[in-house]
Write a structure and sequence with these properties.
Length: about 500
């Protein structure tokens, strides 16, 4: 081939390459424009649908949007189960993936479902609460829990046996497995498969050569943290998970457009700002926003903001049912034993529900008669036993992957470069968490001021001088009243005198 021909071919290749670059650039520009329109349209309609009325008063239905690894399970067992009877829980609440609307009059829904759940709920009659956690700690906790649950299956000889046994147990029991719950239905099987693969590899080698003493980097035992956070599954489910959940954009969303919006935001980070604004607005509208790190303060505020309103709501509901029952008993004529009452079944159901509300189990205060102080006391007792049970299960599970023992001390050994990568991957969650901190600080301050004022008035009338103080106040009010009557009497006499003249 002569020199001019080579030169011509080279020029053609250059032109093709340049054309390819232009086409790709045009495609990227076109795709970004498409994504920008999709995200902006979703954000506009999401904000436009928000209810403008006061959201800080408890409505008929309480929706606890449980962001994973924030301590929500503790609130469910130690707060909400103390307040609501099981008859008031929505079917498939908390542990199930999908809401069952077959019980329209339920009062409590606690679930890992995202905010898109609101599309199935009465927006005017639903209050939303949630808890957020420092995003870096939440990623650590998600990783640790994935390993902890997956490690329980290592009692089986192989992955096939473990998978089959898990399937049989789930089919036999009416309870719910962690494998049924989002996001663990995705994360645990993934980690379980990886743990078995690493164990099989160790057995084939015949020895364990642990190259690292950092629990989060023992690749011979368990998937290292740096590998975990860079996997596509983590990008889709874990990173910025709190923001996507509050925005209603997880891969478990009820909204068809959510998957395309999430794809666009994950591909073009600059579009995440629109999602963040929607999530912030929804936090503003929530009845309560707690922080995992501010455990004691969050619990106190939950008891006083949410708990107190639930107690008042249940008390009013119980009084209403008693009043209706009294009216029915007064108005209904007497029936002979041979005449069937078509309302027997309905009445017995109402009585049963009322009885559950007023039940006094183990000598505790009834739910509607419980005070906030009693609620906090029950909470403290509950979390103590719950944490002990969780610690025992965690210890037993992690023994199967020893010496990879996760702890707060072990987290300090994780390199700063890896921590910075986690922060970068969770940039939206970091911003949302900061915003939640501001909300929490303002609301906690307001709640504490109300409590101090209430305590001041209570102590004023309940201490040893309260009786004297009340007598003084009563005397002053009596004197003022007498003076007012005297002035009225004098004015009346004057008008009478003028008429006579």
């Amino acid at each position: 081939m002569d020199h001019p021909t080579l030169k011509l071919l080279f020029m053609l290749l250059m032109l093709l390459g340049f054309a390819s670059i232009l086409v790709n650039a045009s495609f990227v520009k076109s795709d970004f424009g498409y994504c920008e329109r999709v995200v902006k349209r979703w954000a506009f309609f999401s904000l436009d649908r928000e209810v403008k009325e006061d959201r800080h008063t408890l409505r008929d239905l309480l929706f606890f949007l449980h962001v994973p690894r924030t301590g929500g399970r503790t609130y469910f067992h130690c707060f909400l189960k103390k307040l609501y009877s099981s008859s008031l829980e929505c079917p498939r609440s908390y542990d199930k993936l999908r809401f069952d609307p077959s019980k329209p009059k339920c009062r409590l829904l606690v679930t890992h479902d995202d905010y898109s759940m609101m599309s199935k709920l009465p927006s005017q009659g639903t209050s939303v609460v949630t808890i957020l956690r420092n995003p870096v700690d939440r990623v650590f906790s998600t990783y640790e829990f994935s390993v902890e649950v997956a490690a329980r299956f290592l009692v089986h000889p192989n992955l096939t046996s473990a998978t089959q046994m898990a399937g049989r147990l789930r089919a036999k029991t009416k309870g719910v497995s962690t494998l049924d719950i989002w996001p663990w239905k995705y994360l645990v099987p993934w980690m379980r498969e990886d743990l078995f693969a690493r164990r099989d590899a160790r057995r084939q080698r015949g020895s364990i050569d642990i190259k690292s003493n950092i629990a989060y980097d023992m690749e011979d035992i368990v998937m290292p943290l740096h590998e975990y956070i860079n996997d596509p599954a983590a990008h889709d489910i874990i990173h910025n998970g709190a923001t996507f959940q509050v925005a209603g954009l997880t891969n478990n969303s009820y909204l068809a457009e959510s998957h395309e919006v999430r794809r666009c935001v994950q591909k073009y980070k600059i579009l995440g700002e629109h999602v963040l604004q929607v999530a912030k607005k929804r936090l503003d509208d929530m009845l309560y926003v707690g922080l995992t790190e501010e455990h004691r303060e969050s619990a106190t505020m939950f008891a006083n903001v949410v708990g107190s309103q639930v107690i008042s709501q249940l008390r009013a509901s119980n009084m209403s049912m008693e009043s209706v029952a009294d009216n029915k008993s007064e108005q209904s004529p007497s029936f002979s034993d041979s005449e069937p009452d078509n309302n027997d079944h309905q009445n017995s159901t109402s009585d049963q529900n009322a009885g559950q509300l007023a039940s006094n189990e183990n000598g505790e205060a009834t739910k509607e008669n419980m005070t906030v102080e009693e609620l906090m006391g029950a909470y403290e007792d509950c979390i103590s036993s719950l944490r002990k049970a969780q610690a025992r299960r965690r210890t037993a599970s992690l023994q199967r992957i020893s010496p990879a023992n996760f702890s707060k001390e072990a987290r300090l050994q994780v390199p700063e470069v890896l921590l910075e990568q986690i922060r970068s991957l969770n940039n939206l969650d970091l911003e949302l968490y900061k915003y939640a901190q501001d909300i929490f600080e303002k609301r906690h301050k307001h709640t504490m001021e109300k409590l101090v004022t209430a305590d001041m008035w209570e102590s004023m009338f309940n201490n040893s001088y309260g009786g004297v103080l009340w007598k003084v106040v009563s005397l002053v009010m009596t004197i003022i009243l007498l003076l007012c009557l005297f002035v009225l009497f004098v004015n009346a006499r004057r008008r009478t005198s003028k008429v006579k003249v």
